[in-house]
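Team,

Forwarding the record for the chain on the shared tracking sheet. I've put the sequence and predicted structure together so nobody has to dig through attachments.
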Amino acid sequence: MSGEYRSRVERKQATKRTKQKKAKKRKSASLFKKLATAVLLFMIIGMVGGIATFAYFIKDTPPLDEAKIKDPLSSTVYDMNGHKIAELGGHKRTYISYKDIPKVLEDAVLATEDARFYEHHGVDFVRLAGAVVANVKEGFGSEGGSTITQQVVKLTFLSSEKTLKRKAQEAWLALRLEQKYSKHEILEMYFNKIYYSDGIYGVAKAAEYYFGKTNLKDLTLPEAALLAGMPQSPNNYNPYDHPEAAKKRRDVVLSLMAKHGFITKEEAEKAKQVPIKSMLVERKKHNNSIPYDSFIDEVIKEVTDQANVNVFEDGLKIYTTLDQDAQKYVEDLLNSDTLFTNKKDLQSAIALIDTKTGEIRALGGGRHRENVTFGFNYAIQPVGQPGSSIKPILDYGPAIEYLKWSTAHQIVDEPYSYSNGKPIRNADRRYLGPITMRYALAKSRNIPALKAFQAVGKERAKEFANRLGMGLDEVHEAYAIGGLENRVSPLQMAGAYSAFGNNGVYIKPHAVTKIVFPDGTEMNLKPKPKKVMKDYTAYMITDMLKSVVQYGTGTLANVPGLHIAGKTGTTNYPSEIARKYGLSERAVPDSWFVGYTPNYTAAVWTGFSKRSSTADLTDREQKISRLLFKRVISHIDDGGSDFKMPKSVVKLPIKKGSNPPKLASKYTPESEVTYECFVRGTEPTEVAKDDGPETLPSVTNLQAAYNQATNSIVVSWNYSNANGDTVFEIRIKNDKGEQDVVMTREQSIIVNNPSPGAVYTFAVYAKEGESQSKPALTSVRVPGEGENIQGNENQGQTPPSDQPNQGTNNEQQPNENGNGTNGNNNENNGNNGNDDNHGNNGNNGENNGNNDNNGNSGGDNSGGTTSPTPPSTNPTTPPSQNNNNGGTNGNTQHNNIGNNNNNTQRNNSIGTNAGQRSDLIQKQNEN
């Protein structure tokens, strides 16, 4: 029974498991069907959505206008005010048909741009995927995703904006173009439309321009590869300007030709060995009648580089930054013979930009450009080494930025060598010892510049310079004084210096603000501003560069009334080059001046188009750059406010020669004071220990006597140290509150009509400039009305022994109440006195000509006798016996009453006298 039972139970369990498995299979199959249905549904929705989106994008596609293919549209160029200045188009070109294209050129283009050109119908979806892989494996730019047909469409009908809408329109028009034209016709369009830099369009004209070949059948493999690679970035692969980049691009094309089987690897490697320069003919000027062609040249480069369009065929409206008045003035100046000599191959260039915006206002590309065979634009192309004009960029700018050096930072100008042991010399072969960074830059000393560069370090110096657009791959110590391996352009230097004048903000110099396509689409080409340095670095470099123009090497560039900062620069030939042409080792091939105001920045270069035995700038020719700058900036700049000092900078009076810098004291002579800039928080606090003004010997034998016959007081004294600069100040006071101050070069005065019964006190000081003696004192009593003169015991005698006399007791002052000796009737505003200043801290210059009794010179005053202001209403005159100084001007006495202590008619600018310096130092320290 048990066995039967087990068998029956097992059968039930087996049946149950079978039913569960079938249920699971039915459930899994149902889930799979649902998923498949959902995926299919999403695919259908995606396809419908994609088709709908594509249809939406192409609904506004411009028509396939055959006239645009055959007749390109010209572009219009406008100046800074929106006025038309030029029309670019109708450019003569050598048109070719497909049968004129050699197989090697076609193969090179197909391998580079569209290897499956003959297999697709305008859009190559397979190539799109392959391009992604190729760019990853072989580097960016090895292959593009657009077909040749799409490129023809883009060049002919569409703007270069990178949007899905434009790509959809491009694909749609490419399909339509392939339906209407044959493959050979499309290739023909392509070869005639491509831009090859330097204003060259079409492969036939390019072959003639670069290789001197009018028959395309004569092109070699490396030449064909170069032409095939240039359209990707025509200006960057221009073999004249960028031979290394051109070779790299050409070699990429050769590798692609081998990859796609058009040539063998051996042929590719052999072609790669051909030097770029050996392929080229001498550069020729592109003949055109475009006005302001130096400026327009830059316009074309910017538009083609940034917008990837054909300015001669795409019907653009190009809005530029050109100032026509400035441009014409620059061109006329360069073409005149006023400043230039007739030396062979002498050239010059000017780049003028707006300091605040980076907008190019004018470009002078060279002298007599219509007669120059290779049409080189010296304003925008690298022309020479920068010489000492690089010092703010590589040396002193980084020293302030990273090390917070002050303009008073001292560097020893001494015999010195580079790190490799090679000696470095100053231009004058002399050494100045310890000098400030400001003076080193103003006088363009080489050794301090190298020391600053070494203190900063190569990497930080390179980083700083490259933020200013210098584009340095590496930096060596020789770069510190301008010995760059690569040349620089005036436009590049103007851009770098403008950042110093723009509070540390760099805006790449640019000639184009925007372009408008035929369909109304606009493209903004303005570069974005970049903060490239601290504001204290920009201001302190500017302040030092102002010294260059004020008393340094750049004084010839100074323009009265303008706030100008700038730097000179000259270069020398390498010794082997100098020997080759029979030149002195001190021969000068380049001269620069780069300067700026708050409004404009200009870089001016003078040099030679070719090296030769005469390519050496004389002393006169080295001045041309500075004189050109002066004329240009005078013409364009109307002046305005100075560069604004930021809060991060403190400017203080410093005693010259102090190291570390010390603040000038109130006793530091003006000739020993200089004003220097410090990064706030690093300014000095220690004050120089200078002696006060020299104390002169006091007058002797001071006497005061009342003369009843003339009713006057005669005051006289002796002074054996008198010279032409000696002036005597007599302070008069009586016990009735009347007081006065008299200045004279005589050694006596007369007080007329003194107040009866009053006791008069006289204090006499000897003065020379800021130095003065201690006072000599005496007193005298005037008899009262009806009083017998014999009753005055002290009449005509020296004062009693307990009174200060003849300078023997100088501690007692005549004006102890601190009210000064402010006369009531002479309007002298002197505020003459307190105890510390001996009653003599007057407001100089405010009382000139305010006294009715000033007197005049010589003849009107009987040999120079004067009438000094008496106390109150009592007239005072010098004694008639003192006529030895006939012609002494009475104004000298009155106009200086109370005004000759510390502030004797000093310069009103900040910190120009001891008192103001003290106030300035205190104010800066409080901040």
